[in-house]
């Protein structure tokens, strides 16, 4: 619960920190955008299950089911992940450090989308999904565990790149206010 109420303070602190270090904006974007893209993608995946695009394979319990979904129906659910490419917009910056950061962060975002798409395609003609019934919302939430694991790993790699970037690349000095 603290996370929800503490989020505005976290965002405020991040904004102040990035104002002094403009190269951090592209990294901040790829680190925070999963707050929007992950639930959006899960909503789209759940829509596949709800609208009959998937075949029920096994009903483990009242609350948990296994599904097989055609890969051509699952791939479009990655479209929210295209927001990971937004850091490329910082390539037009006048500051060299910001352009380097945009290139690194944008590439990491492109890798995120590409890896998840490759995981789906590598599974063959159908993607195995599980759905859990959320008692509090009344909705079935469909997920694919392999892409969740890959997403987490790639997010940690992005965090590592954001932390290491200032030491590896000569950036413009921070602005003084």
Could you give a quick summary of the protein structure above?
It contains six helices and four strands. The chain is of the alpha+beta class.
Instruction: Characterize the largest beta sheet: strand count, sense, and whether it forms a barrel.
Output: 4 strands, antiparallel
Count of alpha/pi helices = 6
Strand order of the largest sheet: 1-2-3-4
Round the Cα radius of gyration to an integer and report it: 19 Å
The secondary structure category is alpha+beta
Distance between the termini: 35 Å
Listing every helix as H and every strand as E from the N terminus to the C terminus, the arrangement reads: HHHEEHHEEH
What does the overall shape look like?
elongated
Explain what this protein looks like in three dimensions.
This protein has helices spanning 2-20, 24-32, 34-50, 71-74, 96-122, 145-168; strands spanning 55-59, 64-70, 126-134, 139-143. The chain is of the alpha+beta class. The protein has a 4-stranded antiparallel β-sheet.
List descriptors.
15% strand; 6 helices; 177 residues; 56% helix; 4-stranded antiparallel beta sheet; single chain; alpha+beta
């Amino acid at each position: 619960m603290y996370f929800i109420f503490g989020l505005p303070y976290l965002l405020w602190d991040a904004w102040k920190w990035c104002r002094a270090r403009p190269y951090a904006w592209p990294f901040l974007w790829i680190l925070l955008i999963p707050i929007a893209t992950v639930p959006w993608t899960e909503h789209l995946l759940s829509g596949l299950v709800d609208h009959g695009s998937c075949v029920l394979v096994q009903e483990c319990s009242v609350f948990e089911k296994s599904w097989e979904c055609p890969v051509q129906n699952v791939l479009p659910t990655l479209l929210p992940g295209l927001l990971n490419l937004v850091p490329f917009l910082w390539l037009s910056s006048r500051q060299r450090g910001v352009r380097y950061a945009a290139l690194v962060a944008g590439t990491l975002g492109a890798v995120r989308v590409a890896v998840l798409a490759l995981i789906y395609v590598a599974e063959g003609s159908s993607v195995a999904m599980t759905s859990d019934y959320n008692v509090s919302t009344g909705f079935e939430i469909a997920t694919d565990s392999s892409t969740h694991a890959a997403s987490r790993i790639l997010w940690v790699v992005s965090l590592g790149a954001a932390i290491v970037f200032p030491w590896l690349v000569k950036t413009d000095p921070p602005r003084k206010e």
